[in-house]
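pasting input
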Amino acid sequence: MFESAEIGHSIDKEAYDAEVPALREALLEAQYELKQQARFPVIVLINGIEGAGKGETVKLLNEWMDPRMIDVLTFDQQTDEELARPPAWRYWRALPPKGRMGVFFGNWYSQMLQGRVHGVFKDAVLDQAITGAERLEQMLCDEGALIIKFWFHLSKKQMKARLKSLKDDPLHSWKISPLDWQQSQTYDRFVRFGERVLRRTSRDYAPWHIIEGVDPNYRSLAVGRILLESLQAALANNPKGKHQGNVAPLGHSIDDRSLLGALDMTLRLDKADYQEQLITEQARLAGLLRDKRMRRHALVAVFEGNDAAGKGGAIRRVAAALDPRQYRIVPIAAPTEEERAQPYLWRFWRHIPARGKFTIFDRSWYGRVLVERVEGFCSPADWMRAYSEINDFEEQLVDAGVVVVKFWLAIDQQTQLERFEEREQIPFKRYKITEDDWRNRDKWDEYSQAVGDMVDRTSSEIAPWTLVEANDKRWARVKVVRTINQALEAAFAKHKK
Amino acid sequence: MFESAEIGHSIDKEAYDAEVPALREALLEAQYELKQQARFPVIVLINGIEGAGKGETVKLLNEWMDPRMIDVLTFDQQTDEELARPPAWRYWRALPPKGRMGVFFGNWYSQMLQGRVHGVFKDAVLDQAITGAERLEQMLCDEGALIIKFWFHLSKKQMKARLKSLKDDPLHSWKISPLDWQQSQTYDRFVRFGERVLRRTSRDYAPWHIIEGVDPNYRSLAVGRILLESLQAALANNPKGKHQGNVAPLGHSIDDRSLLGALDMTLRLDKADYQEQLITEQARLAGLLRDKRMRRHALVAVFEGNDAAGKGGAIRRVAAALDPRQYRIVPIAAPTEEERAQPYLWRFWRHIPARGKFTIFDRSWYGRVLVERVEGFCSPADWMRAYSEINDFEEQLVDAGVVVVKFWLAIDQQTQLERFEEREQIPFKRYKITEDDWRNRDKWDEYSQAVGDMVDRTSSEIAPWTLVEANDKRWARVKVVRTINQALEAAFAKHKK
């Protein structure tokens, strides 16, 4: 895999000097165009052998291009805020918005390679990390990002020579860290696992570019050209047309049965039972959140449901059990300008709770496969891929100890009608009912279909959906609080083993 | 000061039950109106004696109102990301945007009171903290925020009784933390310093409301009513008319001399001197940023200047000295939607570097007193108060160890004309010149006046302005890098003492 990068590529000064001015000018223009279009972000990943000129190349690119439009990010020691959340959170918070370029040093590849090279884990875990990286990049590209991955290579001999020459040059000796030297001993392992990683993560949408690092002229020109060509191609390309080709249709129910139709909508609680059970479950919830095992977990509760199904009321019964300092409610409305400049899931990642905390999402990332699907706010390809993106997202949460509880509050059409009419008559409830609600109601069947598909495709052993029969608000509220309690207890019990 | 809150206020159940429904409805409506107008944020500060019902009241408000529009925030242990920045950073990052309500537990008052009560510092430091709080709140109110400050009080006897009854009630005993009990011993000190703080920070724009905490009915109604009245008054008020009355005019130069006019614009460096001096200063900068004393500091460099004065080129010469991982360049353009929903300085606070880091602002918070003043984007009252807000802001940076270096790159009109014309002719520089640049040029004298005022009012011993004679780019670049070096060395030397 590194054969072509060990043959001693070089460019002489004359050829180099002849090419640089035009390259530089073209890069600047592409950068400006990127900013003007503000249509996609550029993510440049910098990996490879120590001493192969990673830092120098990035420095040079910052000199050639306008450094004001480039964010160079380094990910070394995690902060405690990062340690309290899923590993990918630190990358999500650093993603460049559309129109900007982020250069990621010490990215997900460095982390997995360091771990494997130093024997922190074996191939199986490395492969998990590889799959995670692949999925992240696939998703970023689907969202329009341009990802350019550079691997700077040196043969073992070249590396040793380079490190030695750097050491002997007093002007540059500070550039070598002890880590670099250490790497010369781990070179073989690094290259072996590097090949595994590159082989499995070089994909059409985000291929690796292997750069021989010996000759600065060669390496600079090679990187500059790849960057320029990638930028120009992406700027000329209209991604609106992308990925629209082959969207496999979802099957429709071929008898009349549906998941929502199978719910027993007559379930109810009388007032006395309700009050007793609710207070019991609320006390249980309060206790669980104060349990010291909660420190190892976080809790995310997602509330979706028909309009007027009682999401707000259910959320308030959950909240009422708790000290307001323990939870945070995130109402999901239209994305802000900064959110629109990022991949779809970014606006949820930013609200992921730290360990020990509880976030309630009042509507959620499932908007993609519900309202956005039904109303045509995104393309079928976009919401189709959302199912697996969401599954990946939730898996990352769960892997990090987050307990994910998801509710669909279901009512029937007659109940909705009654509640709409009631809302229109009670003054302080009037703001809860809008034209949109009536419009959505006309699309009842389409929403039901979308809900069925959503549950079928995203209810899993790690983050199951709970369908809540909500014609009776009392029944629904008790079921919601109880379900959260059961999920927490299960997580606590599992951890103990 | 607490006399009225020790007389045993109470409301009987009947009166309470009679009032609550209407109060609740009105609060919900005000909340909805707040969201609709999205014109200002509401910040509720919760302080006072332990056991006086702070937590219970906030919980109740969350039940009465729609908790989805309220963020309850608690500030206990600082995270390492917070510890690496000025103390106020944690509050800035948690500010509610316009249209939302943030309830701050454990806010700046709790911190200063804890510190004083436990003898971490004496009155002088407490008074500094008080002044800081006052200035922060004044600024927030000037920016339109509604601040409501509640102090929950109990007499010493009441407090002891309440803690005891809570302890004896098995359902509530978990509510008392060891800290609460400890407070019963420090009650006297807490009340004494509390009075000092309240006396000095109860201002017309953000008065304290002292609530006797013994009777839940009384305390809940009292808080609910104050909240409602404050909200209704603010919603009815048009802040556009506020603070416009008395803006003291700035004096104008009464002879023909000006600060910028006094610069020696003939200063220049020949090529050889330039190359030698630049490389020397760059090496010095690289060394300083790698110095271990840098770990105690952060560096902020602000670049302002005439159009075409060479800000970009100067920034690049600074950047060229460094590893791109060491600095971050923040170009300041029009604020985003999320930034517009916050106080003016918010969008700069979010980019304040952690200790050990370096942030370069390409244009900055000084836009308020430059382009916004000259173009009339804000009112005279707004930019007039900006001088002291900026001084306060920079003082907080410097107090936290941030070295603040500010450059005004000055060129004369003839030089600007030549550069504009040159830019229009060179293809890859063409994007650097816009209609705006020509328009700004027509307002040369107004900008000069604004720069003079800015320097006079914000150049201080802690964060001085450096005026850079930039007709000769070489001279300017060397002066910029050298000035940064001198500032860093001075900071390092000072710390040593």
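fyi The beta strands of chain B are 42-48, 70-74, 101-105, 146-153, 208-212, 298-305, 327-331, 358-362, 402-410, 465-469.
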